[in-house]
Amino acid sequence: MEQNNIDIYQVGEIPPVPEDYWNDEAPWVLNSQVVLAACITSFAESSELPSLLNSWSDTLKRIAEPSTEFKGLIAVLHGEMPGNNIYQLAAYALLALQSNSLTPAQLWKNSCRLLEVSRLVKNYTAVALEALLVKRWFFASQQQKFFFSAPRISAAQIERACLGSEYSGLEKVASILIIAEPYLDISVSGELMMLLKNIRDKK
Questions:
Q1: Which run of H or E residues covers position 2?
Q2: SS3 letters across 77-115
Q3: Are residues 202 and 109 located together in one domain of the fold?
């Protein structure tokens, strides 16, 4: 298509971003979301994470100096403790899933952290997060049932939620958390439970 003899669909160089683009926090928040989405997918597929992290980190350092929060995220993914940042806390929760000694109460809290962040990039994380957390919750229902009150009833309900087809993606994760919550010794606000129900019911 031509406009004033100029082909507006002609392939050319990608225009550079403004000089102060990387000084703003917004692109680093976006990068945090992308890195976490990739990590969730990588974990779900049992892919090698360290080499990917080093590649991303080196590439971004050549573009600009990363923000403090983004550098903190990469540090957490390399094993350091998180700060009070939702992406760092989610990364820490993701790494914690590798431990079979994780109690169901800890799994519940970590699942919430990952669900919170995954809502922001749902199109990229829903399937992978479902696979990752359903596997962990099914393990809990089979191998850690005595961490729950009323173990026989709770384990059966969680197992049914994991294997059922009524929900999928983040909705399924939320439904499992709703079912598990009454059987765990955790304190959960009414606001959080309402949020989980809204995610489950796609509101």
A1: strand 2-3
A2: HCCCCCCCCHHHHHHHHHHHCCCCCCCHHHHHHHHHHHH
A3: yes
d(CA 53, CA 121): 19
| Residue 68 located in a structural domain | yes
pTM here?
0.85
Q: Which domain holds residue 40?
A: 18-96
CA distance readout (Å), 83 to 12, 15, 138: 42, 35, 30
Q: Does one domain contain both 49 and 72?
A: yes
- Quick: pLDDT tens for 35-93: 999 899 988 887 666 566 777 777 777 778 888 999 999 999 988 999 999 999 999 99
Find residue 3's DSSP bridge partners.
6
- Report whether 96 contacts 147 (CB < 8 A): no
Same domain, 133 and 151: yes
- Based on the domain organization, do 108 and 203 belong to the same domain? yes
Using CB atoms within 10 A of its CB, is residue 161 exposed (0-12), middle (13-18) or buried (19+)?
buried
- The Cα–Cα gap between 46 and 120 comes to 23
